[in-house]
Amino acid sequence: MNYTYQNIDLILTEPRDGCSALSNNFEFQNNIALIDRGGCSFLSKCIQAERSGLLAVMICDNDVFNDDQYIDMVDDTTKRTCSIPALFILGKDGIL
């Protein structure tokens, strides 16, 4: 991320996996989403977040016991793009 954000909220998406249209998108404008890993590609999650007006997305590992293995957020070969920042965090860092 090459930006500095201030007064930004971290919003949980609904559905939590972020694989379909986000139903709580009224909360998203100019905020950052926390999305659970799984269900679809990282790119699909990023695209759903971007469509909802989010500034960025954090994808949390769905294994809450994972405290050291990072996952590569690889291209899903669909040639789609997402222009908002996206990052992966460990399960222990994103569990609520």
UniProtKB/TrEMBL annotation:
PA domain residues: 10-94
Record-linked Pfam families: PA
Keyword annotations: Glycoprotein, Signal
InterPro entries for the chain: PA_dom_sf, PA_domain
Protein name per Swiss-Prot or TrEMBL: PA domain-containing protein
Protein's organism: Caerostris darwini
